[in-house]
Amino acid sequence: NIQGITKPAIRRLARRGGVKRISGLIYEETRSVLRTFLENVIRDSVTYTEHAKRKTVTAIDVVYALKRQGRTLYGFGL
């Protein structure tokens, strides 16, 4: 459930990014952007898992999915 991403959680992420003030309209927009991002990463991760004839998605599958989308992630065994 995307509503599990609470207002305080979004606020913390924004603070970490250096944001001082947040409009009330930001929360739903952030949830929709996050949902789209996660759907794309999960779809690619599952594709890598199925290609390897496995049923368990591993961290490496997620790393490859992120790399495919141009968001290289370091520190997970590659």
UniProtKB/TrEMBL annotation:
Major localization listed first in the record, in broad terms: nucleus
Keyword Hydrolase: no
Family: Belongs to the histone H4 family.
Protein's cellular compartments: Chromosome; Nucleus
Domain (TATA box binding protein associated factor (TAF) histone-like fold) ranges: 3-68
Subunit structure: The nucleosome is a histone octamer containing two molecules each of H2A, H2B, H3 and H4 assembled in one H3-H4 heterotetramer and two H2A-H2B heterodimers. The octamer wraps approximately 147 bp of DNA.
Function: Core component of nucleosome. Nucleosomes wrap and compact DNA into chromatin, limiting DNA accessibility to the cellular machineries which require DNA as a template. Histones thereby play a central role in transcription regulation, DNA repair, DNA replication and chromosomal stability. DNA accessibility is regulated via a complex set of post-translational modifications of histones, also called histone code, and nucleosome remodeling.
Lineage of producing organism: Eukaryota, Fungi, Fungi incertae sedis, Cryptomycota, Cryptomycota incertae sedis
Organism domain of life: Eukaryota
Protein name: Histone H4
InterPro entries: CENP-T/H4_C, Histone-fold, Histone_H4, TAF_TATA-bd_Histone-like_dom
Gene Ontology CC annotations of this record: nucleosome; nucleus
Keyword Membrane on entry: no
Taxonomic source organism: Rozella allomycis (strain CSF55)
Keywords per UniProt: Chromosome, DNA-binding, Nucleosome core, Nucleus
A GO term for molecular function: protein heterodimerization activity
